[in-house]
Specification:
globular; four-stranded mixed sheet; oxidoreductase activity, acting on paired donors, with incorporation or reduction of molecular oxygen, reduced flavin or flavoprotein as one donor, and incorporation of one atom of oxygen; 9 strands; single chain; Cytochrome p450; disordered C terminus; binds protoporphyrin IX containing FE; Cyt_P450; Cyt_P450_sf; signal
C-alpha cells in the first residue's frame, strides 16, 4: 500500500510488487513508459519495498541539489551491499565514514594533479601506448574495447598504485573482465531478483550454492584479491611521509589519525576497489561510444579535426587548458557523454529523513532512483534531444555552453568525485587521437549498431574500427616521432 500522499505508480502484487512490469535485463523503457503515465515522480514496489523514480530536470534538481542533504543516503539492504559490505565510498551511507573518505579522495586526487600538469603528464604517457597500438593496427582493424579499458584502467592505476600494466598483461586482462562483469551483473537479472525477493538468500541448497559460485561473485572475489595484494605490497614497501600514490597517502593518513577515525586497512581495500572500478569502466565506455559515433558521423569528426589542427598548430601536444579554445570539440565530447548516458540510473540514493518532493511526501529510508536518462534526452531542455548533434552545446555565436540538464555525473552532495579526472582523460585522449588519425567504420563490418547494452554502466555493442594516419600528419610524421 502506498502511504498517504506518496507518489503514484502502477498497482503492485503481494510479494512480487511491480516485478512483472519491469524487464530485468533492461528496465529503461519500462521506466519511461511509467513516467509518461504517472508523471515525473512516481513509485514502484521492489518486492514489498517502495522506491521512488525521479525523472526530468525539475524533479531531480529539487531532490538532489535543492534538498541534496535529505536525499544523500544510500540504501543499505541491496544485493550489492551484501557483497561489498559498505566498505568503500560509492555505496556507503551518509555519515562520517562516507564524508571523510569522499573528502580525502577529492583532496588527494586534486593534489595528485587534477587540473594540474602532473596528472596531464600521466594521461599523456598512457596516450603514447594507445598511439602505439593504433600504429600497429594500420592496414587492419582493431577492437577498441580492450584498448580503451586498458588505457583508462592504467590511468587510475597510476593514481592509486603508481603502477601501469602492459596491455597484454594476463592479470589486468582478468581484472578488467571482472570489472566489466561486475557492472553488468550488479543490476542484472540475478541481482535484481535477489533485491526483489530477498527470501531467496535463505533458500536451501543447492540454490544458494549455485548462487555462490555464480560468475558475479567470482569476479568480485578476484577483484578484491587483486586490490588486497596491492594494499599489502604498499604496506610493506612504503616510505612513511613520502607518498608515491593514493594508497601511500591513505596509509600516511591512517597513521596520523590513529585508531578512532573511520580510516582502516579494510576500508582502504573497499575504497580502492571503488575508485579503480568507477575510474575504469565509465571513462572507457564513454570513449567507446565516442569513437563509434565519430565513425558514423564523419562530418562531425572532420570538423573536430579542423578545429584541433588550427588550435594546436605548432604545439607538440594538447593541454587540458586548450579546451577553452576548442568550442566545437568541447561540444562534441559533451554530446558524446549525453548520448553515451553512461550511468543511466545513477547510483541509487535513499532519503535520510521524512521529506517532500514536488508536493509528494517521501518518508525517511525510501529508495530513490534518479533516472539520468530522462534528463539527458529531455524534450524542452535540448535543441536536438534524440539526435547526436554537438549543436546541443553551442549557442548562436558558436560558443560552448553547458545546459543545466547536462548531468551524466549526477549532481549534489553525492555527485561523481572523479568528474575532473574523467573530463581531462576524455579531452586529452580524444583530441590527441583525432589529431593524428582518421577513424573509419570498416567497409565489411555491416551497418553500425548504436544500441547500448544496459548495466550500471552502459556499453556499446562490440565493434571494430579502422584508423588511418591523417594526410597532414603522414607528411610530418618525424615531428611526432620525436
Ligand atoms: C565519464 C566518466 C564518469 C561518469 C559518467 C561518472 C558518473 C557517476 C555517477 C552518475 C555517479 C553517481 C552519483 C550519485 O549517486 O548521485 C558517480 C559516483 C561516483 N564516481 Fe563517477 N563517473 C565517471 C568517472 C569516474 C572516475 C574517473 C572516478 C574515479 C576517480 C569516479 C568515481 C566515483 C565515485 C567514488 C562515486 C561515488 C561518489 C559518492 O557516493 O559520494 N567516477 N559517478
Amino acid at each position: 500500500q502506498r502511504v498517504n500522499n506518496f507518489p503514484p505508480g502502477p498497482p503492485a502484487l503481494p510479494i512480487l510488487g511491480n516485478l512483472l512490469q519491469l524487464s530485468l535485463s533492461n528496465p529503461l523503457k519500462d521506466f519511461e513508459r511509467m513516467k509518461n503515465h504517472y508523471g515525473d515522480v512516481y513509485s514502484i514496489f521492489i518486492g514489498h519495498r517502495p522506491a521512488v523514480i525521479l525523472n526530468g530536470l525539475k524533479a531531480i534538481k529539487e531532490a538532489i541539489i535543492t534538498k541534496g542533504s535529505d536525499y544523500a543516503g544510500r540504501p543499505q539492504d541491496l544485493f550489492v551491499n551484501a557483497i561489498f559490505q559498505g566498505k568503500g565510498v560509492i555505496l556507503a551511507d551518509y555519515g562520517t565514514n562516507w564524508k571523510e573518505h569522499r573528502r580525502f579522495a577529492l583532496i588527494t586526487l586534486r593534489n595528485f594533479g587534477m587540473g594540474k600538469k602532473s596528472m596531464e603528464d600521466r594521461i599523456h604517457e598512457e596516450i603514447q601506448y594507445i598511439l602505439k597500438t593504433l600504429e600497429n593496427s594500420i592496414g587492419t582493424t582493431i577492437s577498441p574495447q580492450t584498448l580503451f579499458h586498458n588505457a583508462t584502467s592504467n590511468i587510475i592505476s597510476q593514481v592509486l598504485f603508481n603502477t601501469r600494466f602492459e596491455y597484454n598483461d594476463d592479470i589486468i586482462t582478468v581484472i578488467i573482465r571482472c570489472i566489466t562483469e561486475i557492472t553488468k551483473y550488479a543490476n542484472g537479472a540475478w541481482a535484481t531478483l535477489y533485491d526483489y525477493l530477498p527470501m531467496i538468500q535463505n533458500l536451501p541448497l543447492p540454490f544458494r550454492e549455485a548462487f555462490k559460485s555464480h560468475k558475479f561473485l567470482n569476479a568480485i572475489s578476484t577483484h578484491i584479491t587483486f586490490i588486497s595484494s596491492m594494499v599489502t605490497e604498499h604496506m610493506r614497501n612504503r616510505i612513511p611521509g613520502e607518498p608515491k600514490d593514493l594508497l601511500d597517502c591513505y596509509l600516511d593518513e591512517l597513521e596520523q589519525r590513529g585508531a578512532d577515525s573511520s580510516f582502516s586497512h579494510e576500508r582502504l581495500i573497499g575504497f580502492a576497489i571503488d575508485l579503480y572500478g568507477a575510474g575504469t569502466d565509465t571513462t572507457s565506455n564513454t570513449l567507446l561510444t565516442g569513437f563509434l559515433y565519430l565513425m558514423c558521423y564523419p562530418d562531425i569528426q572532420e570538423r573536430c579535426q579542423q578545429e584541433i589542427d588550427t588550435m594546436l598548430d605548432g604545439k607538440r601536444c594538447a593541454s587540458f587548458e586548450d579546451r577553452h579554445n576548442m568550442p566545437y570539440v568541447q561540444a562534441m565530447i559533451h554530446e558524446v557523454q549525453r548520448i553515451a548516458n553512461i550511468v543511466p540510473l545513477s547510483i541509487f540514493h535513499s532519503t535520510r529523513k521524512d521529506t517532500e518532493l514536488m508536493g509528494y511526501s517521501i518518508p525517511r529510508g525510501t529508495m530513490i532512483i534518479e533516472n539520468l536518462t530522462s534528463v539527458l534526452n529531455e524534450e524542452g531542455e535540448w535543441k536536438f534531444p534524440h539526435d547526436f548533434n554537438p549543436e546541443n552545446f553551442l549557442n548562436e555565436q558558436g560558443e560552448f555552453v553547458k545546459p543545466e540538464a547536462f548531468m551524466p555525473f549526477s549532481a549534489g552532495p553525492r555527485m561523481c568525485l572523479g568528474e575532473g579526472l574523467a573530463r581531462m582523460e576524455l579531452f586529452l585522449i580524444m583530441v590527441t587521437l583525432l589529431r593524428k588519425y582518421k577513424f573509419i567504420w570498416p567497409e565489411d563490418a555491416g551497418k553500425p549498431d548504436l544500441t547500448l547494452v544496459y548495466g550500471i554502466t552502459m556499453t556499446t555493442q562490440p565493434y571494430r574500427m579502422r584508423s588511418k594516419l591523417k594526410a597532414k600528419i603522414a607528411k610530418t610524421l618525424h615531428y611526432y616521432a620525436m
